[in-house]
Amino acid sequence: MAGMKAFIRNKLSASSVLEVVIAMVIILVVFGMGLMIFTNVTRMSLSANKLEAEGIVRKTLLLVEQSDKPTDQSFQEGGFRIVTTLKPDTADSVLIHVSVDAYDIKQQKLATAQKLIIKEHE
């Protein structure tokens, strides 16, 4: 009984339900913002696949530039689908606009490179 009397005299004020709900909302908002930041950073970071695709795209662009008669082509290399597109330049008939794109298994574009090359006279 003596312990009970001491407990009653030193009452602690209880939190209301409203205070608890507000605290939970604040915690959830902060946690949600942190999760959004984390997913954006991990999604936008350079991965090994992107770096490898960039290397293949640059190599393919160099090969197309050195080719005697470049053509549109699509092929598989290193687990990526590489698409080379050639279009005549609208401003000058001597120039060709070359675009090389690399796609992963999910058909998402990982890397792209573009260049204007001079068409060989026939």
Descriptive overview:
- This protein is α+β, with helices and mostly antiparallel strands.
- It has 2 domains: 2-44; 48-118, Pantoate--beta-alanine Ligase, Chain: A,domain 2.
- It is built from 3 helices and 4 strands; from the N terminus they run αααββββ.
- The chain has helices at residues 2-9, 17-44, 48-66; strands at 73-77, 80-88, 95-103, 109-118.
- The chain has a 4-stranded antiparallel β-sheet with strand order 1-2-3-4, covered by helices on one side.
- It is rod-shaped, with a radius of gyration of 31 Å.
- It starts with a helix and ends with a strand.
- The model has no long low-confidence stretch (mean pLDDT 85).
* Count of helical regions: 3
Q: How is the largest sheet built, in terms of strand order?
A: 1-2-3-4
Oligomer: single chain
Question: How does CATH name the architecture of the largest domain?
Answer: 2-Layer Sandwich
Q: Which structural class do you get from the secondary structure elements?
A: alpha+beta
Please summarize the sheet with the most strands: 4 strands, antiparallel
Strand-helix topology:
Blueprint: H1 2-9, H2 17-44, H3 48-66, E1 73-77, E2 80-88, E3 95-103, E4 109-118
Antiparallel strand pairs: 1-2, 2-3, 3-4
Structure summarized in a few sentences:
By secondary structure, the protein is α+β, with helices and mostly antiparallel strands. It is built from 3 helices and 4 strands.
Descriptive key words:
Pantoate--beta-alanine Ligase, Chain: A,domain 2; 3 helices; 45% helix; 122 residues
